[in-house]
């Protein structure tokens, strides 16, 4: 819901009213952050639906909030569409299974829908990987996602994605949607979030260690990030051998690396650190923390680390919150990642390293040596950074909505 939350203050300015349907927070095991409500405009209508108790569904191996809430979403949205006039359904979340209900709503109420592909829904990424690298319940989720994506995407009326490759892959996979409107829109920078976080700094427990150089990454982990993380760990190894007192000051924190319920996540970064003898310098907490707690922790860090994926289409959604902190930053990505262009266009001073280049480790070693000596170079936002503001990117969403309505009216593919 991050994109929707940061767009709500601007939708009306662009001529749209948005009602929001969410799962009631009592049914979610994710960390809660009441401060998020401060950024939602007064008068916004938010409908909350129930979900089946995870205590019961877990007995059948089903803990997903999407699956547990699907029936309740149908019931609520059916009533809303029956009693009110809406022009469009906009689905913006990574709980993709709920999207399949859009097919029903389109057929029943003749309303188009747009899907925001913040991450891939169905992916073959793990198909050629060893079983010990598969995520939990991969056999089931792979088949479920493959089926539900096909059913949903073949009837969709518009696509938004954070990467052009996501859209290209979907249109190649489902040629029937090759002509529907599309738009690549990254997550916007929402400056009020930093202000809210700093104003409430004392509300959150401190996660960093005083007396050390704290380098922070907050976001998902995964085996696909090892190619970006490993050269950093190799540089740490080399530094510990050559200058143990200097490099021994580092503490790398990987926080919120799993989407699993609290206490259920499987570490994917710490085992790599442990295998390289860096267990004293690296910590990983799989549990998610609240959004503003994350922002405060980023602000408290000495420097930030932003690893990419070996999937060239991957663009981290946390790029703009990172940039808004204006902290010293090391970003490690693959050659084809669109994130490198975003970083270069947004700010000056970000240390960008390509992990598949021969000099990656040596470049990172030089950066870490400076950091070990407390030579931190803050980044500076470029004038063009405003192009990536939440307001401007809300305008791009609205442009896409208008194209969808026009295309839907002309083609009348509402069956």
TrEMBL record:
Gene Ontology MF: a single term: glycosyltransferase activity
Keywords linked to the UniProt accession: Transferase
InterPro entries recorded: Glyco_trans_4-like_N (IPR028098)
Residue ranges of domain Glycosyltransferase subfamily 4-like N-terminal in the record: 66-176
SUPFAM superfamilies linked: UDP-Glycosyltransferase/glycogen phosphorylase
A Pfam family per the record: Glyco_transf_4
Keyword Cell membrane on entry: no
Gene3D superfamilies assigned: Glycogen Phosphorylase B (3.40.50.2000)
UniProt key word Protein transport: no
Official protein name in the record: Glycosyltransferase Family 4
Organism of derivation: Mucilaginibacter pineti
Lineage of origin: Bacteria, Pseudomonadati, Bacteroidota, Sphingobacteriia, Sphingobacteriales
């Amino acid at each position: 819901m991050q994109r929707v939350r940061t767009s709500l203050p601007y939708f009306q300015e662009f001529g749209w009213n948005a009602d929001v349907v969410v799962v009631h927070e009592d049914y979610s095991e994710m960390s809660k952050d009441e401060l998020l409500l401060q950024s939602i405009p007064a008068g916004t209508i938010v409908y909350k639906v129930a979900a089946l108790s995870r205590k019961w569904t877990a007995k059948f191996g089903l803990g997903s909030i999407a699956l547990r809430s699907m029936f309740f979403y149908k019931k609520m949205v059916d009533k809303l569409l029956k009693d009110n006039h809406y022009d469009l359904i906009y689905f913006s979340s990574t709980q993709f299974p709920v999207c399949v209900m859009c097919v029903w709503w389109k057929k029943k109420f003749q309303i188009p829908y747009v899907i925001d592909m913040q991450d891939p829904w169905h992916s073959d990424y793990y198909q050629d990987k060893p079983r010990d690298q598969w995520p939990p319940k991969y056999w089931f989720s792979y088949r479920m996602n493959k089926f539900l994506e096909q059913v949903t995407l073949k009837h969709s009326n518009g696509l938004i994605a954070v990467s052009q490759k996501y859209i290209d892959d979907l249109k190649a996979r489902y040629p029937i949607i090759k002509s529907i409107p599309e738009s690549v829109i990254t997550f916007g920078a929402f400056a009020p979030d930093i202000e809210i976080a700093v104003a409430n700094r004392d509300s959150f427990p401190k996660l960093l260690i005083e007396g050390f150089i704290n380098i922070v990454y907050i976001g998902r982990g995964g085996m696909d990030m090892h190619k970006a993380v490993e050269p950093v760990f190799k540089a740490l190894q080399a530094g510990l051998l050559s200058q143990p007192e200097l490099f021994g000051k580092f503490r790398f924190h990987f926080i919120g690396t799993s989407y699993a319920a609290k206490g259920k996540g499987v570490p994917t970064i710490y085992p790599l650190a442990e295998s390289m003898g860096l267990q004293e310098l690296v910590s990983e907490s799989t549990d998610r923390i609240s959004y503003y707690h994350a922002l405060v922790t980023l602000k408290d860090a000495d420097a930030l680390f932003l690893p990419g994926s070996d999937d060239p289409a991957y663009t981290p959604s946390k790029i703009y919150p990172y940039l808004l902190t204006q902290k010293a930053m090391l970003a490690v990505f693959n050659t084809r990642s669109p994130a490198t262009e975003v970083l270069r266009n947004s700010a000056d001073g970000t240390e960008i390293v390509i992990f598949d280049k021969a000099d990656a480790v040596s470049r990172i070693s030089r950066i870490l040596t400076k950091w070990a000596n407390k030579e931190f170079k803050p980044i500076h936002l470029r004038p063009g950074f405003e192009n990536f503001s939440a307001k401007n990117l809300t305008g791009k969403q609205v442009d896409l909505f208008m194209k969808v309505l026009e295309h839907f009216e002309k083609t009348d593919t509402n069956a």
